[in-house]
Amino acid sequence: MKNRINITVATDINTQGGIGTVLQVLKQQGFFKQTNNILITSHKISPKFKRLNMMLTFAGCLLRIVYYGLFFKINITHIHLSSRGSYSRKSIVVKLAKFFNARIIIHLHGSEFVEFYRDESSKRKQKKIRATLNSADKLIVLSKSWKIWAETLIDDPQKLMIVYNMMAKSKIERQAQPQQNILFLGRLGHRKGVGDLIKAYHQIIVDFPNSCLQLGGDGDVEKYQHQVSELDMSANVEFLGWVSGADKFDYLSNAYMYILPSYNEGFPMGVIEAMSVGLPILASTAGGIPDAITDGKQGLLIEAGNVDALANGLSDLLQNTAKAARLGQAAKLKFENNFSPDIIIPQLLAIYDELSE
């Protein structure tokens, strides 16, 4: 009798972004060992021979699945899937895993998956996407809004589950700072509302000269450096580059508030990282953000693209330090009760137990 295993197929665990962070937390918490789960990399970004290395990585992924399918009994294949190239690769993985009679979990990530399906895919491709999602035994989505959308594509809504992203509980203590640091972490671009953020900060900077807007991330850095220079704000805006690991939590511990005025989001890791250290949040209502933040309770929410509302939110939190502290404390409590591994991992284990039956 073949030994039973589970496999997880996803992008490189060390990649920048939400999927990599989720995988790291699962590994740190012992989830893969607990579920006898083998992590297989389907995609890895390499600075040299980028396209060739991507093809070789995916070919190696498929060969490993074939090997485990031939010599082991694959019980569950847990596939972390997002839009575009990720979908193309993982749709093949789904078919291969089903060939070996594995139960399929599709874990849907990617803040632009709705746009990818609705605006970028032909009717024929939309049909294929629906078929791929319907072939799963469980479809995990990251927010209530995504669940409502996915219900329009799935024949059996009982397959749908909301499982929020998670972060390990933070052990760091926030530090009192002489200046009010407004922290943004993520790829600098239109989707994250960075241009709107700079415009909004320009509206209120004269009233808060002791504040500093810290922009952590890669992307269109030169574009926004030019915007900041044109608005004569260089003394109060700091470009941090991509921030990860211990450096990320150093910036979080020294921040006054966290800001994310995105146009599209899944369930942003940056928000729950900020919540884990007790930062008040100012963010848009995009994607799963309202699942984490209730306006006026753990932070302030504005509609994406509303620069005046964003400026008012900045002014409100910078001026009312007691309010900011109260919202930050509430954010940390909600994190512990909803987005810590103690809460999320049992939900994943319950899905595994159900499918194993």
CATH architecture of the largest domain: 3-Layer(aba) Sandwich
CATH class of the largest domain: Alpha Beta
CATH superfamily of the largest domain: Glycogen Phosphorylase B
The proportion of residues forming helix, as a percent range, comes to 40-55%
Count of DSSP helices? 15
Q: Quote the CATH topology of the largest domain.
A: Rossmann fold
What string, H for helix and E for strand, traces the elements in order?
EHHEHEHEHHEHEEHEHEHEHEHEHHH
- End-to-end gap: 18 Å
Largest β sheet strand count, sense and barrel closure:
6 strands, parallel
Tell me the strand order in the biggest sheet: 2-1-3-4-5-6
Shape: globular
Question: What is the radius of gyration?
Answer: 21 Å
Averaged pLDDT = 94
Low-confidence stretches: none
Number of domains: 2
- The secondary-structure class comes to alpha/beta
Strand content: 15-25%
